[in-house]
Every structure is written in C-alpha cells, then in structure tokens.
Amino acid sequence: MSAEYKAEGNIAVITLTNPPVNGLGFATRHAIVEGMKLALNDDAITAIVITGAGKAFSGGADIKEFNSPKAFAEPSLHTVINVLESSEKPVIAAIHSVCMGGGLELALGCHYRLASPGAQIALPEVKLGILPGAGGTQRLPRVVGLELALNMIVSGTPIASEKLAKTALFNEVVEGDLMQAAFAFANKVAAVRPLPKVRDIKVDYPNYEAFLQFSRNTVRAMSGPFPAPLKCVEAVAAAVTKRFDDGMKLERDLFLELVQSTESKALRHAFFGERAASKLPDVPDDTPVRPIKSVAVIGAGTMGGGIAMNFANAGIPVQILEMKQEALDKGLATIRKNYENTLKKGKLTQEKFEQRVGLITGTLSYEEIAQADLVIEAVFEDMGVKEQVFKKLDEVMKQGAILASNTSTLDLDKIADFTKRPQDVIGTHFFSPANVMKLLEIVRGKKTANDVLATILGISKKIKKTGVVSGVCDGFIGNRMIEQYSRQAGFLLEEGCTPEQVDKAVEKLGFAMGPFRMGDLAGNDIGWYIRKRRYVEKPQITYSKTADLLCEMGRFGQKTGAGWYDYKPGDRKAYPSSVVNDMIVKHSADLGITRRKISDQEIVERLIYSLVNEAAYILEEGIATRASDIDMVYLTGYGFPLHTGGPMFYADTVGLPNVVMAMAKYAKGRHGDAWKPAPLLARLAEEGKTFN
Ligand code: 3H9
C-alpha cells in the first residue's frame, strides 16, 4: 500500500506513503481510492483529510511510470480526482512541504485545501516537456485567476504557499499544527452541502482575448524548440473559453501528444540523468562524508576566481592563494567586479554582496591555508607545475584535507602520486566561467577514497553544480570526446566548409555555439598548446593543420580581436573573415583536395557521431558509469541542446543502426579510420538496443 487509511474519531485520514516524494504511481492511486471507499462506507465518518507522509504532500504523478502502461492504468489520476470531487463527504487536503504537478491537481479536486506556510506550490510539468494533465490547466485558473495560473503553468516555478494565501486556492494557511487545524476545519465543514467544487467556479477575466494573444506571442518567442509552453497557453485558454468538460478534453489531448514527444522524453531523461549522476554503484548512499567548512583555491586567475565564487555563494569561506601580491590583487578585484555587476543588475542584495565578497580572502602563504578542509588547485595546465603544487600541499595541508586538481586533461593518478596521500586526491574539473557553468566533472583516481568521492558529490550539490564522475583518461569524459568533434570540424574545413557554415549547421540544431565560435571564445591557443603535446606523445593521431595555421597568424580568438572570425572593438559578434577563409582554401589546395559542397546533414552527423563513437569507448572502458552521465556532461558543460537529451540520447533517438550506417559512409572518405564503430556501439546497433 502506498497510502494509509486511519479513522481519527469521525474524521478519516488518508496519508500518502510513497517515498521519497509521494509520487502518484499506480499503487498510491489505488490505495487512495480504497481509502475513499472505506470512508464513504463508514457512517461514523463525517469528513476525509488527505495528506502526505515525510517530506512532501506529493511531488505529482510518478514520472518513472510514464513510459509504462501503469501510467494510465485505472484508477488513473483523473479517476482518483473524480472520486474525491464527487465524494458526498467533504474532502480536505492538508498540504505541506511540496505540492506539485499531479499533487496539486489532486488537491484541486478536494473540496477544501489547507496549507502550511513555506509549502512549494507548482505545476512544473512544462519543465518535463508536458502540461498538467489531470485538470491543472482548468482548475488552477479558477482559483488563482487566469494571469497567475498562466504564469505558474508556463514557467513551472514554485510559489510559497503563504504568497497564495489570499487566493481561493487555500481556505487557510495554517501557522501551527497542520493536522490539528485540518481536523478542526473538517469538523466545521462536516455538514456543509452542497460541497464546493473548483470546477464550478467561473474564470472571470475581462478582455481575456487580448491577454491570451499577448501571452501566445510572448511564449512563442521564448520557447525555442520546445512545444510544451505554447500548448500550456492553449490549455489554460480553454479554462476561460470553453466549458469545464471540454477544457478537460483539450487538456487531455494535448497532454497525450506532448508526453509522446521526443522533447519531453529528452527532458525526462535529463531529470533522471541529473539525479542518477550523483550515485555510484560502489559508493553507497550512507558513505560517511568529510565536513567542508572552509576551502582554499590555488591560483587567482579566471578559473581560480570563478571556483572561489561558487563556495562564497554557498556561504563557505574561501582563501585564494597566489604567488605574487599583484596577481592576487588583480584576481580579488576581478571577483569584486563580478559581484558588483550582479549587484547592479539587481540580482544580488547589498547584504548578500557584502557577505560573499567578505567570504573570499587572499594569501601568499601556503602555511595560511593549511587548515582548509578542501583545497582546489587551478594553476597552469602543466605536469611540472602540478607536481610542485601537490608536493607543497602534501607538506602543509592538515591530515584529512581533500586535495583537488582542476586539471582538464592531465593524468590525475600521476598527480595523486606526487603526494603521500593519494587517497585524498581527486579531480574537480570546473568549466569556464566556473561560477556560471553547471557542470563539475569529478575525476576519480585509482586510489581516491570513497568518502572523498562522496564528500565532493555532496559539495557539488551544495554549490549547485551537476557533478558527474569520470575515471582517469586523457581529457576525461568531456574533453576526450570533444577532441574527436574538433578533429571532424577541422577536416570539414579542409574538404569544403567555412567556419561559419559548420557553426550554423549545429547552431540550427540548437547548440549554444558551433565549434569555431566556441574556439574563439575559449582561446584557440589552448587547443594549439594541447595539440603540440599530442604531436609528440601520440603522433599516430591526425589533425587538420588549419587550426595551427590560424594560431601561427596570431588569431587566438576574441581575446586577440581575431580568430576564426573577425571581431570589432567592443563587439563580440563574429564576422566571417576573408583572410581566414582564403587561408583555408589555400590549405586545401596545398593538400591537393578538391573542395566540395558539404550538406548541413553531413556536418551535423560527422560532429555528433564522432562524439557518440568516442563516448561508446568511454562507456565500455568504465570511464563513465552510465550513458546518461555522458549526456549530463554534454548538456551542462558543452551547450549540447537540451531538447535532444544529450549525444547518447540523441543517437538512441536516431537509432543506433542508422548511426552505424552513416559512419560506414564516412569511413569511405578521408581519415576513414576515425569511423570504425566502437565495439559497444556496433554490438548495441546489431542487437537493436540503445545506450540509455
Ligand atoms: C505530473 O504530475 C503529470 C500530471 O500533471 C498528469 C498525470 C496524468 N516521480 O529532486 P530530488 C524522485 S508530472 C517520480 O533529488 P529534492 C527523484 O527522482 C510530475 N520520482 O529531491 C529522486 O529519486 P532518487 C510533476 C520523483 O528534495 C527523489 O525523488 N512533478 C518525482 O531536491 C528525490 O528527488 C514534478 O515535475 C516524481 N514526480 O526535490 C516534480 N519527483 O532518490 C519533480 C521526484 O531515486 N520533482 N522524484 O534519485 C521535483 O521537482 C523535485 O524532486 C522535488 C524534490 C521538488 C519534488
């Protein structure tokens, strides 16, 4: 049973008991209906209170059931709500903590609703690419008004219950004991007949047509590739333009359409992917964690500063260590400026500004950071420099401190072995700008202790990052894959594309930025530096020389005012560059390549399938724990379009046999060796299976 029935004198109490958030799965729905039968058949019962056990009233429909027949098995959520609404005895919802989605729809089917202050009230279905499908779009406007309901449904943002106290959503917002208040209320309304039903309320909104048209225009402009927001407007509109039952039918049709859409499946995949990423099969949930009350960051550069801000934002004091006073002052001034900009934009209060700036201090002495619980090194990406830093950290840091490296490509096991405590060493690879980007790649060394991993996974949540664990390999998950993508981008230039054509093709799919605009933003010299190392270490790997030629021209990107594109002073817009395009054409001629017209489809396939193939190796080698971890890396760190669900989910959607078939075609072209399918990919394609 996922709901408990109990009679407290003349009041029946149905308590949802489906942890963690009392999702309204099949068993819970069934148990609610059974509870209602008991209450209605017992003459001694005069009213029914519905509430939730634990940390939620209800988080809504059980999303895990969405792809199974259980989602719509009877009693469906509609049936449950009908049973409540048509009950001859008053039904009162006692709401606390979380009341979302189907949970709120269930409450709206009750005759009365009481809430504790601070309860999060939302219809967040749009964030999963669907719309409230159990009457939410029809009932919420009837109690909070058309405008507020539309905002809540289109944004999915939770509102604290006390802010809705004046609306007809709640009969009371209760300061004291919720259940006691619910019993008192139940006794008060026990004899009321007829019982109030939300469906009977009329939505009153003069000039609703103008408002709805304005909403359609605004939402259409904002929703990009996602169909759900506009459908939400259509469904809410029906609450004012149609009879209740007709509005319900429209809502149902739109819900069924959206729930099948790839965009919704992708968003649901990302929802569960984000939560799965924090779990490791060999690190149990009850693994002890080390307390992190203070942090030190080595290096006050852009990366170090950004990393420090994350901790200050979470209320944790951070020391930044630099070698020279000048560099330290510059770093601290940049941080202050960043916070000042946020303050000016009104996104930070003066009090928070001062608190955060006050939490970040500077030092020139390793001895002064010795007591920090966690130290993160963000120095130059060079093994010799890392060696010096880690030997020093090993010497000065207190026992039990976690020693983390922000390396993006170097061998973490080697770094760990510079110390006598490799079990305390871990990689924390932040993405630039580190105070903005969601991804934190957590690199697990061979000797990293489980409690160190569990601590960093916990800290990543605290600083609001999506933490994804990677094993040690060159580039870890993200950069190892991006190398294959960059190689293809380079080959495409040699064969006939311009940087603009390549960028536009993937940006049309929804990428935040194509590879060349990205290179100009990050600095083309970084890749150049890495390739020079590779030319020595891995001479068997081939690269297009175009990127080297570009760097030899001094075109490092936005920071030098010129890269793959031209830039004008004070303007970040990328202008196609005739100098670069001439260089590319000449390079093709030097290689004896006849340039050809390349379709957008070929560009997209080559870029994405090169990521997917490398990812299949990564998965098979156990560098990534699961395919959805790889998707989370790309969705949160590399601007991969959310509506596609990440590279692995995208490949699953296209169909792995189709991916392999396209790869076979490209294998016949130049650098065909890059297109040999990874064994895992080949096997899954052959068996008709998917990554996720
Ligand atoms: C809906 O209602 C459709 C209807 O309109 C129509 C139907 C016909 N189902 O986020 P957390 C799990 S659609 C299943 O870390 P928090 C989650 O996976 C639904 N599982 O906790 C995780 O599991 P695990 C509309 C769910 O305290 C665990 O709970 N509702 C659901 O930070 C803890 O999650 C939503 O979209 C669910 N509905 O935040 C609400 N919700 O431990 C989505 C959570 O195995 N949920 N889980 O990894 C949330 O926004 C947050 O989870 C919530 C709690 C605020 C509730």
Structure, described:
Keywords: Fatty acid metabolism, Isomerase, Lipid degradation, Lipid metabolism, Lyase, Multifunctional enzyme, NAD, Oxidoreductase, Peroxisome. One of its GO terms (biological process) is lipid catabolic process. Its main location: other. 47% of the residues are buried. α1 packs parallel to α2. The chain has 692 residues and is of the alpha/beta class. It folds into 3 domains: 3-259, 2-enoyl-CoA Hydratase, Chain A, domain 1 (Alpha-Beta Complex), CATH 3.90.226.10; 295-470, 3-Layer(aba) Sandwich (Rossmann fold); 478-686, Orthogonal Bundle (N-(1-d-carboxylethyl)-l-norvaline Dehydrogenase, domain 2), CATH 1.10.1040. Bound molecules: (S)-3-Hydroxyhexanoyl-CoA. (S)-3-Hydroxyhexanoyl-CoA is lined by residues 20-21, 23, 59-64, 77, 98, 100-102, 105, 124-125, 128, 132-134, 136, 275.
Task: Name some characteristics of this structure.
single chain; 692 residues; alpha/beta; 2-enoyl-CoA Hydratase, Chain A, domain 1; Rossmann fold; N-(1-d-carboxylethyl)-l-norvaline Dehydrogenase, domain 2; 3 domains; eight-stranded mixed sheet; six-stranded mixed sheet; binds (S)-3-Hydroxyhexanoyl-CoA; lipid degradation; 3-OHacyl-CoA_DH_NAD-bd; lipid metabolism; isomerase
